[in-house]
Amino acid sequence: MIQDSTSTTVVRASVNGEDEQFAVSSGETLMETLRGAGYYGVKNGCDEGVCGACNVILGDEGVTRSCLVPAASCDGAEVMTVEGLADDDGGLHPLQSAFLEHGAAQCSYCIPGVLLASYDLLQRNDEPTESEVADGLSGNICRCTGYVQQIEAVQAAADRLSGSDASSEGSG
Ligand code: FES
Ligand code: FES
């Protein structure tokens, strides 16, 4: 981390596996930095740590509200945004496919944060119960869907990722 005389700090971090370098000002949040660099999947829903729309995966800390993280503290960090969920060819992650199939996204403003909270949950628990998914998503506010379809979608994605989804067998 390098600090210059105008209190701009240079932060180097890995974002979705790519090395990035950001000039961040004092008081700037990771959410602001990422959005300023074009990672628009990081949404500003409340700017005060309530809604989960700004979620990222922050190294070993897992899912994290980027509006609460000082950007200057992220030197050397590994960050994943929703843009990192799809594979290198742009193929949707099973979570993304399941959300589409289950009608779990309407206006979609909350969806990047919900997807990353779901991803984090499935990293820790590959077969979550309905109540465990509800718990895992409890920090994410959605004003559209009522959450039921989102919970169904996460469980469907878990089945797909574990290979127990009979409906996907033979579909290639
Ligand atoms: S914008 Fe960060 S929690 Fe709402
Ligand atoms: S889909 Fe609209 S806020 Fe969640």
TrEMBL record:
PROSITE patterns: 2FE2S_FER_1, 2FE2S_FER_2. InterPro entries: 2Fe-2S-bd, 2Fe-2S-bd_dom_sf, 2Fe-2S_ferredoxin-like_sf, 2Fe-2S_ferredoxin-type, 2Fe2S_fd_BS, Beta-grasp_dom_sf, Diverse_Oxidoreductases. This is Molybdopterin-containing oxidoreductase small subunit. Pfam families: Fer2, Fer2_2. One of its GO terms (molecular function) is 2 iron, 2 sulfur cluster binding. Keywords: 2Fe-2S, Iron, Iron-sulfur, Metal-binding, Oxidoreductase, Plasmid. SUPFAM superfamilies: 2Fe-2S ferredoxin-like, CO dehydrogenase ISP C-domain like. Residues 9-85 form the 2Fe-2S ferredoxin-type domain. The keyword Oxidoreductase applies.
